[in-house]
Model the fold of this input.
Amino acid sequence: MTRTIAVVTAGLSQPSSTRLLADQLAAATDRALRLHDERVEIEVLELRDLAHDLTNNLLTGFPSGDLEAALATVQRADAVIAVTPIFSASYSGLFKTFFDVVEADSLAGKPVLIAATAGTARHSLALEFALRPLFAYLKAVVVPTAVFGATEDFGSTDATSASLAERVERAARELADLVAGRSATGPVDPFDSPVPFEQLLSGR
Done:
């Protein structure tokens, strides 16, 4: 069975620490799911490439171009990894706009791993008072461990960097456990388990 993980990253620069953290989380989740004997497909959605389509969607009410495909990816994914930079003590406007236009109930019951980046660790609480409530409102199942990466966490070999790696691995294991315990998402073929004709006749 192949599990699809949609990685939504809202970094603005290229390259960005947000994309770097997203890639680390995706790789760790891939490894964790393979321990469950699951095949994995990772689909990365760079929101900076969808900025114009997102604005048009807000104005017209309809997704177009790559945005429509991105929204479909999130809808059919078995899980989502959502990573945003922190601006003004909360998620970025680009990040919020994307989840504003995600179709209602697309994330209902879906496992989600939340993560964020910022210049200093002082912004880490935004994961709990901004991101976690957002995904709770969207009815997602958010893993217990949220991952925050400050500038000092990247490109370092000290204990701070090691701590980030540990959080990445722990969150990835939690996400993988949730995904492995769920049925694969996607349309159900009614002919996979047909009701016997005798049962239909009996009305049972």
The radius of gyration is 19 Å. DSSP finds seven helices and seven strands in the chain. The domain at 2-202 is CATH 3.40.50.360 (Rossmann fold).
